[in-house]
Automatic annotation (TrEMBL):
Pfam families attached to this UniProt entry: DndB
Upper taxonomic lineage: Bacteria, Pseudomonadati, Pseudomonadota, Alphaproteobacteria, Sphingomonadales
Record-linked InterPro entries: DGQHR-contain_dom, DNA_S_mod_DndB
Protein name: DGQHR domain-containing protein
Record organism: Blastomonas fulva
Length: 379
């Protein structure tokens, strides 16, 4: 028998935009009553009309969220925001009860609002869609607006999303240090901290922790996020899954030789006590770069590229190719062996400038290509 009403305990909240009701609804019940109102364009007598509130669903994002809710870290503490037709909502203030129900007009039998579809999602469509076709049924925090027009719905959606400042990626990675479980991101964070703090490291005091310059330190040319993102793919192809393995099990599986060719640092990460070996490889590799092109590496001013984002991205991409020409098993390669490779390159210090390697991904790709060509490493 299909459901015809939903009884909820609510808390009334009054803000500048109006009154709404805060409550908890299970994900599967919320899916029953909600429609996904996508923004679309239609033609009406040659005039374009913009309809709907939400942007079209991005299924890759839905799948990523669906994977997340299956992990031990899964949580949605922020509220989903919905709108309900006033004809489908009855408030009982004495008991703080909100009853959502279907509607049939007493006069016009054609005016019917079925229970399935009485609500429109204003914000949170991807989060809710992730629960569809699953048995997962969390209680979700929900804020309900009753009887607001489409213009107000659109205003709420745009204001909420405009006000959400994108989180600093360097800060996110830094916070992994507080995680009790072992994870690829936490390992990368710890390695980056060491790269920045060890005087013998070519990155000593060059990495901006939390993504912004450190007071009293000059010459920081890379953000923490840039360095973490460069190292992370050499440990894992799926950080979320490996983070969950670390939290639930604590033992990482052997993934074999084929995986090693893509993720050269995973065997060290798997051993749980060998992160220092990843650090040693990185120090040896970039120290060889520093020795081969000392002027370009130590130039941190305007026009410098080798120790900045473009240079780092091209060099970290080249690392795997160099490493696999030197070994077929997970071992630490010495600085001298890396230096022998770079000594074959005909690139000069003066060539490391924005004219040869322009800003953006194209410059990093060009550096990678020229490193391969000038050292004779085939990829």
């Amino acid at each position: 028998m299909s459901r015809t009403k939903l009884q909820l305990q609510y808390q009334e909240i009054q803000q500048e935009i109006g009154t709404f009701y805060s409550t908890v609804i299970s994900a599967q019940k919320l899916l029953e009553i909600c429609t996904f109102d996508f923004r679309k364009i239609s033609e009406n007598d040659g005039i374009k009309e913009f309809l709907g509130i939400q942007r079209p669903l991005k299924m890759d994002r839905v799948r990523e969220i669906q994977k997340f809710i299956r992990t031990s870290d899964g949580c949605f503490p922020t509220s989903i925001v919905i709108s309900v037709d006033e004809r489908c909502a009855t408030l009982i203030p004495e008991s703080h009860e909100l009853v959502l129900h279907s509607y049939e007009d007493a006069v016009d039998a054609e005016i019917v609002i079925p229970f399935r579809g009485i609500a429109t999602i204003i914000d949170g469509q991807h989060r809710l869609k992730a629960f569809e076709n699953t048995s997962i049924d969390w209680g979700l925090s929900v804020n309900i607006f009753v009887g607001i027009d489409e213009g107000t719905q659109a205003s709420i959606f745009s204001k909420v999303n405009l006000a959400q400042t994108k989180v600093n990626k360097s800060l996110v990675y830094d916070l992994f240090a507080l995680d009790k479980g072992r994870s690829p991101e936490k390992t990368c964070h710890e390695i980056v901290v060491a790269l920045n703090s060890i005087p013998e490291s070519p990155f000593y005091e060059r990495i901006k922790r939390l993504g912004s310059a450190t007071d009293g330190i000059f010459g920081e040319t890379l953000s923490q996020a840039t360095v973490v993102k460069g190292i992370l793919p050499y440990i894992t192809k799926d950080p979320m899954t490996d983070r969950d393995i670390g939290k639930r099990i604590g033992v990482f599986p052997d993934r074999g030789a084929v995986d090693f060719e893509r993720r050269i640092f995973y065997p060290f990460f798997q051993k749980t006590t060998a992160d220092a070996e990843i650090l040693a490889i990185l120090i040896n590799y970039f120290s060889a770069v520093q020795d081969r092109w000392p002027i370009a590496w130590n130039n941190t001013g305007k026009g410098a590229i080798l120790s900045r984002t473009n240079g780092f991205n091209g060099l970290i991409r080249f690392l795997r190719d160099v490493y696999l020409t030197e070994t077929s098993t997970p071992v630490v390669i010495s600085k001298e062996r890396f230096h022998r490779v770079f000594s074959r390159s005909t690139l000069t210090d003066e060539q490391f400038n924005p004219n040869v390697f322009p800003p953006g991904s194209s410059g990093a790709a060009e550096l990678y290509r020229q490193l391969c060509d000038t050292t004779g490493i085939k990829v």
